[in-house]
Amino acid sequence: xxxxxxxxxxxxxxxxxxxxxRSLPRQFKVLALSVNSDIVKLKEQIEEFRPAIVCVxxxxxxxxxxxxxxxxxxxxxxxxxxxxxxxxxxxxxIMFAVSGSSALIPLINAIKSxxxxxxxxxxxxxxxGPIIMRLVxxxxxxxxxxxxxxxxxxQGLAGLDQTNVRRVYLTASGGPLRNLPANKFRQVSIEKVLxxxxxxxxxxxxxxxxxLMNKGLELLEAMFLFNLGAEKIKILIxxxxxxxxxxxxNDGVIMAQLSVTDMRIPIQxxxxxxxxxxSQLAGIDFYRxxxxxxxxxxxxxxxxxxxxxxxxxxxxxxxAVLNAANEESVNYFLNKRINFLTIPKIVEKVMRAHAxxxxxxxxxxxxxxxxxxxxxxRLGY
Length: 381
Ligand code: NDP
Ligand code: MG
Fold this sequence. Notes:
Blueprint: E1 2-7, H1 12-23, E2 28-35, H2 39-49, E3 53-56, H3 59-66, E4 74-77, H4 78-86, E5 93-96, H5 104-112, E6 116-119, H6 123-138, E7 143-145, H7 148-157, E8 165-172, H8 190-193, H9 203-211, H10 213-226, E9 233-237, E10 243-249, E11 254-258, H11 264-272, H12 304-314, H13 318-334, H14 342-353, H15 362-379
Parallel strand pairs: 1-2, 1-5, 2-3, 3-4, 5-6, 6-7, 8-9
Antiparallel strand pairs: 8-10, 10-11
Helix pairs in contact: 4-5, 5-6, 6-10, 6-13, 7-10, 9-13, 10-12, 13-14, 13-15, 14-15
Bound molecules: NADPH dihydro-nicotinamide-adenine-dinucleotide phosphate and magnesium ion (MG).
The site of magnesium ion has 4 residues, from helix 7.
């Protein structure tokens, strides 16, 4: 029985993780949960899974929850609470399904306290990939990728290192705006952007799927996770989202990972690795599958991809700046302050204004992140 913690348990990946734990009660014991402020969902989860510890980021919501749960559940709060939770001695593996960059410090503390990490959150890896990977090595913990593309690459590699790899095809569904003509992008509504054709996910990542910044972030994530140069990673639009990425080896052999479009599959593998536990999800019905399509990405309609490749060439603090400017701009878009086209424009302006630091320390990464957010504010949208 593996004792796990699920951070971001009220979100899309968090709930899917609990669905996996629910389906395999003899394999996984949920010892800790965390949310930002959704204590209604958290309370339901406490009643079902009986975790020993929970953490609510929002202090006021944490206070309200304390009044509602019994003495068997310890309620922590704030970032300090999350940092205490990840150090708990009993926890063996932690699912990081918190969205955004706020997960970085808890992630680093979890690694330092020897926990294996199931990593869904991609923003932290983009910000501080080299720092995280150095700590992973030093503390001899595992990072088990959850993002479906990274899981596919990891499975395709099957333990081989980057010297065996000719290239990686990072597949993308193309998102909700794949077929939208260029002249329609300015007026595109939030509702249309949030209507993803293949995946049901949190709002931030769904907007990123529409700009294709999600794929840009995954490019950087893959570079750091698998020690690959950007020139080895090709983004490939694959609307059916059945191939979750492919690894082409030096000898021309290509390993593709296929499965139905359901995050419970990579989540379960990240939790059960190296075992393949049974799943109630169906495989792919190849008799009914008529075709698999592949297209080149359109860098003109989706300039976020160019920006991500630029950050991938520059590295240092640039990926953190790309990520922070993007998070802020996506918030502006969701709050109706800017139109869709302005999201990459802001990111580009902030990247252009940034004086990059090569091989930054954690402090310099955090400072670059804060600077980028302030710079977005200074642009005055
Ligand atoms: P959601 O928005 O659905 O969920 C986010 C979770 O994080 C919620 O539990 C939320 O709590 C919590 N949270 C948000 N902000 C904070 C904070 N500042 N401090 C503590 N907790 C916080 O996101 P997703 O589940 O879609 O995505 C989670 C991560 O996984 C993202 O980094 C995303 O890029 C990545 N990912 C997601 C995929 C998907 O299919 N959804 C696929 C691949 C990667 P509350 O509900 O209280 O706000
Ligand atoms: Mg993905």
